[in-house]
């Protein structure tokens, strides 16, 4: 030590703490995706936690120019933290930053991204605090750090801003603003460096597709996952579950999987992960019997290990310092911990036929979860595990199902960037129908799925309105663990409930194909209107008239639209909330048709509708093609042939790609899937005519008889 | 470099990042105050920012044993963060952690201490996020870091806990708790080390006294500061202010200082700090005239510098990278910046007689203040400046008044540990009367002052109820910058408003003496019931009966009491909120008497009172002595003799220390003050008789004729 000059030593120590990296190197890692490195990134990050393997589809994308001025991106490491800045133009709106519940437009928001239960304000604490945003100008930014990132999405104003706001005097200037104009997105990452990804478009939806493909593409659920699911009372016995399944059958309501709540475990909170033999004396026989009724079984759990669990001692060395509800917390970033936990799950559940999980309480909130003073044997911090725990439980449980050759589709309370390919849907304890729809829209910007679950309702109207939206979402679920409610609980709306549940089943070919596009192309199946061409970016440019009477369309798209969304390629869903008897719907450019009647609804305009209780308003784009099947009580099984009714809407020619595979195994990963081309074209005689390409030889083919229905007369 | 082995170099780099300091060294720096150092603390901290000079009174305190088991305190530095743990016993309640608005009991709370506007939940974001807590067992802990500290105040549960919670099964155990028992307070400080202070009691109030004396003792306002104050409409001219002052005089309402809102400045938001010559053509003459009316002038400002300010260019090199409302942000941790700013204040305001400031918007919230990506020329981080900015504006403005020989008393939006000696009262934009009273109680645990200001009211009842509490608070203020309301705005309650305003003035000798005790002894003048002997600690030990009928007293003190508080040595204040016609009051052990009538109110019991609108319920401890003066419209000036009516309540003998000095200058710091001993004792004839010690020769003496009033017959 004495031979080494103190000052040089000090200098060496100080260098990493103050690094200016004003012009970053950008490396195009896939067409239209660039990676830049600021400082010295953590060795553990979101993509690593997710074990994300980029989709091969990325390489088929078109090249695109770097979408920003590189000199406008600034990254510096100061005293162990990374300071990031990205430019913002005047007429630019931002979307994303995770699963937000109140806002779609993120410009102006200040967030600290932090995995947590949503606490009724959009402050960054959410189930999926994804550090990714997409601009209305058609580019995106992703900061790959498993850290609590402070985000100033166009709120901070710098002295050296190139586009400074106008200085005014609050005393006398009427136009004085408490929120002066900001020309940058800034972030503070509490790490000595970070990986940054920039995504090209050209359209905003292409940005999201690239982001999702970077994680391997969206998940492809088994077909049954898109059917109907009921979660039963937490203390039901196997006999009561059997009765529930039979009641659905007798009532003629569709049902594909039942969720068992904590009572299936011998002890829970903390959990043993083992069956309670008083309530479930023969789990294996029970699941076989349910399987014969075409009902899959999904198990609630959280990952916190009871002292009474058989794995308690074995997993102990791989758990954190603090407990959650007296359960030890497996350090799932260590292979040893995840192997012990999921080997038990495999033996106890998957090997006897359990189809999936609802993995609860991996999000927060603080008073339940481990505190940030907890430490873990991997050396990863509490913060790093908090940001990735949802990814880890999804990854290792999904790996387990993959080993066993069966697809799964389940529920999880937390996710993050890198998790798009995991077949899990996020849910929470909040129960605002409006917030649920906002979350459904935001899920499409965040690479996650969300269900606006139905839990209980005070009135038949609310029950129906919620049920209608859940049937136009990634998972059609009643979560009755506490309420024990059933679809027919309100007899006065039973026919409407049945109708929409049957519609969900009839639309299975559409839903399944749209999820395949999520998987293969990265296109979110449920997404916000800003991603729809011709809707406007949220900041309409051509005119400045702000009078609603003069120009209602412009006003509508300039404002945040949180109550209508796109479902798949062609459908615009405009749900009603309890108490509403009418609502406005903004129809993008081009003609739009009523889904139920095929009649023209409007074109690039704001319409007001009063659909009554019976139906959830759904509109179809001109030329839209919706493949449907007969209403069934259960999703078609592997290889089961199904007749199709292919609907066409509007006056334009249309085309559609119908996806097919065995719907349950992973054979699609070996190429055992097919896309069939559907085309509807106007003939010389003026009539429309549809055709569907033949099934490829050697590929799955579940299409039976095809009938054509031209909805618009 | 090549001669220095790489591995040793790496080892040296890694050593500071993982330090185990399980047995800390504790150094008794004052009687009953120990300082311990974990890791390598920041060079900039709360006490340094405040420039706190410990009170000489500390050295006169009794010695006390270290109040905790040293081995139970754990501090470790891991990867640049400090992990702290302090023990908790089963029957222990915690108070403090800053100016909280909803909770008094802090056990179980999870907070991230962060200077900010209170956002309607107690999550650590508050105007005074003081990292200090006091235990019901009679000790306290202070973590001297200008950082966002995560606090788990008895919520985290460790695997290695000595007192682990009982493991239960939520499925079947009715007593299952979502919040298992925790035996520790844990904190995460994002710094490589920290100074920790431990305070002995023996009583909880002694802990707070030691904490306040460490900062130099509480502030001693000028006598006029305890009179009545009105803040006028933001755009009033000097003529309108003059009219306002005259209206008070004519109506016969007390008034000691008027606050001018932003319009006094030529431009504000951002600020010039210079007079607007259209609204105030002759500031100096205006202030002289107001002074002749015995009215002081207080100026609103925030510290963000307008490009039009005369100091703009000069201060620019000492400002941060980001602006606030287009104003540059002086780095007040640099002497250069504070000198430029406060030299201007001194020249423009103090030299012409301005008496004080309302320093606004130094707290938050995020969308207004500089973002945490801002950097500052001192090298202090945004986080460090955010946590200390309130301290800095108080310190440097107070220094300026001290230089000029005049005491001040003003308002500030943010403070922190170390700021007890600054003569500033915190206020905010929230307006829940209940929250305001909770904050008043919590201010006493945090070393700060708080005013439950009156701003506007929908009804006469609300106006009166708010007015009553503000008269029993550190600053009796109407903040009418927006509402332009006046005490007589609701004629139907004008007599009651006048009565309580006069009472405020009559009680001046009591208030002034109680503030002197805050200054010289550290005793908070307004404080929670838990600090009152015989009230119970919040967790009563002797009995376990929980039936309200059988033992209402025990039940009441076990619960959190947020609607009554102590004002000075002898008074218990139990305000009513709008809509209440009766309320319960918990009287501690010993007899308590009605302040207005002297009649016995009760003894160690819960009473129900329905006082009507006229009065705010106030109770006096047995033997209580309250020195009062005639109702005046203005506080007595320097040297002004005032007659005293000394009241005695109850049956016990009593004693009181009456403070006296010139009430406006800093001569008390040179010893020019006196304490006079008041005693009321029962004579042999059974009658009570009072006496007051003579004034010391050469010391201030403002006591005129003394009359005695024995309130309890």
Automatic annotation (TrEMBL), chains A, B:
Residues of the Glycosyl hydrolase family 31 C-terminal domain: 555-626
Record key words, sorted: Glycosidase, Hydrolase, Signal
PANTHER family tied to this protein: HYDROLASE, PUTATIVE (AFU_ORTHOLOGUE AFUA_1G03140)-RELATED, MALTASE-GLUCOAMYLASE
CDD domains linked to this entry: GH31_N, GH31_NET37
A GO molecular function held by the record: hydrolase activity, hydrolyzing O-glycosyl compounds
Name of the featured protein: Glycoside hydrolase family 31 protein
A Pfam family this chain is assigned to: Glyco_hydro_31_2nd
Membrane-traversing stretches: none
Similarity comment: family membership: Belongs to the glycosyl hydrolase 31 family.
Organism placement in taxonomy: Bacteria, Pseudomonadati, Bacteroidota, Cytophagia, Cytophagales
Coiled coil: none
Domain Glycoside hydrolase family 31 TIM barrel intervals: 220-513
Residues of the signal peptide: 1-21
Domain DUF5110: 644-686
Taxonomy, superkingdom: Bacteria
Residue stretches making up the Glycoside hydrolase family 31 N-terminal domain: 81-147
GO biological process: carbohydrate metabolic process
């Amino acid at each position: 030590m004495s031979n080494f000059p103190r000052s040089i030593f000090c200098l060496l120590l100080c260098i990493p703490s103050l690094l200016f990296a004003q012009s970053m190197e950008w490396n195009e890692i896939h067409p239209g995706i660039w990676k830049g490195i600021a400082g010295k990134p953590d060795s553990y990050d979101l993509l690593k936690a997710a074990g994300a393997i980029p989709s091969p589809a990325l390489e088929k994308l078109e090249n695109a120019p770097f979408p920003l001025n590189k000199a406008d991106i600034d990254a510096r490491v100061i005293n162990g933290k990374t300071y990031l800045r990205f430019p913002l133009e005047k007429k630019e709106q931002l979307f994303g930053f995770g699963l937000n519940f109140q806002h779609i437009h993120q410009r102006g928001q200040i967030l600290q991204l932090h995995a947590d239960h949503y606490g009724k304000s959009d402050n960054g604490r959410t189930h999926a605090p994804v550090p990714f945003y997409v601009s209305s100008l058609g580019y995106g930014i992703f900061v790959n750090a498993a850290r609590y990132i402070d985000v100033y999405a166009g709120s901070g104003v710098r002295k050296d801003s190139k586009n400074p706001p106008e200085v005014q005097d609050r005393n006398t200037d009427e136009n004085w603003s408490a929120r002066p104009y900001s020309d940058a997105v800034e972030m503070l990452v509490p790490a000595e460096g970070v990986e940054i990804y920039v995504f090209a478009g050209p359209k905003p939806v292409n940005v999201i597709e690239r982001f999702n493909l970077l994680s391997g593409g969206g998940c492809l659920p088994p077909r049954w996952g898109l059917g109907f699911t009921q979660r039963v009372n937490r203390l039901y016995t196997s006999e009561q579950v059997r009765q529930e399944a039979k009641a659905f059958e007798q009532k003629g309501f569709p049902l594909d999987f039942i969720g068992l709540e904590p009572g299936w475990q011998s002890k829970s909170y903390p959990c043993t992960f083992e069956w309670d033999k008083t309530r479930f004396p023969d789990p294996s026989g029970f699941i076989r019997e349910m399987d014969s009724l075409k009902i899959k079984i999904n198990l609630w759990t959280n990952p916190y290990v009871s002292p009474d669990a058989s794995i308690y001692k074995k997993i102990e060395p791989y758990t954190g310092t603090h407990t959650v509800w007296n359960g030890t917390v497996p350090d799932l970033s260590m292979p040893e911990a995840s192997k012990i936990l999921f080997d038990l799950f495999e033996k106890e559940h998957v090997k006897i036929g359990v189809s999936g999980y609802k993995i609860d309480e991996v999000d927060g909130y603080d008073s339940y979860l481990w505190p940030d003073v907890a430490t873990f044997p991997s050396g990863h911090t509490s913060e790093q595990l908090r940001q990735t725990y949802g990814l880890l439980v999804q990854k290792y449980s999904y790996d387990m199902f993959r080993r066993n050759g069966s697809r799964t589709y389940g529920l999880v309370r937390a996710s993050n960037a890198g998790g798009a390919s995991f077949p899990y849907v996020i849910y929470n304890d909040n129960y605002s129908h409006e917030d649920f729809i906002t979350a459904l829209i935001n899920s499409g910007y965040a690479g996650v799925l969300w269900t606006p679950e139905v839990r209980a309702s005070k009135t038949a109207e609310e029950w129906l309105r919620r049920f209608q939206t859940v049937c136009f979402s990634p998972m059609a679920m009643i979560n009755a663990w506490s309420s024990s409610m059933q679809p027919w609980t309100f007899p006065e709306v039973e026919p409407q409930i049945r109708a929409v549940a049957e519609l969900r089943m009839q639309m299975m070919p559409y839903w399944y194909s749209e999820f395949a596009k999520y998987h293969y192309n990265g296109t979110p199946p449920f997404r916000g209107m800003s991603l729809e061409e011709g809707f406007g970016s949220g900041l309409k440019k051509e005119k400045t008239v702000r009078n609603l009477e003069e120009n209602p369309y412009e006003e509508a798209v300039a404002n945040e639209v949180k109550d209508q969304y796109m479902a798949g390629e062609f459908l615009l869903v405009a749900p009603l909330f309890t108490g509403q008897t009418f609502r406005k719907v903004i129809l993008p450019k081009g003609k739009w048709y009523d889904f139920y009647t095929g009649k023209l609804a409007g074109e690039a305009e704001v319409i007001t509708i009063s659909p009554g209780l019976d139906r959830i308003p759904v509109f179809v784009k001109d030329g839209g093609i919706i493949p449907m099947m007969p209403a069934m009580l259960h999703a078609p099984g592997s290889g089961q042939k199904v007749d199709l009714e292919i609907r066409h809407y509007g006056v334009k020619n249309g085309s559609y790609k119908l996806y097919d595979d065995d719907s349950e195994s992973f054979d699609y990963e070996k190429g055992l899937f097919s896309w069939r081309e559907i085309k509807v074209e106007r003939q010389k005689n003026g009539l429309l005519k549809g055709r569907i390409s033949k099934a490829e030889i050697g590929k799955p083919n579940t299409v039976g008889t095809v009938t054509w229905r031209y909805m618009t007369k």
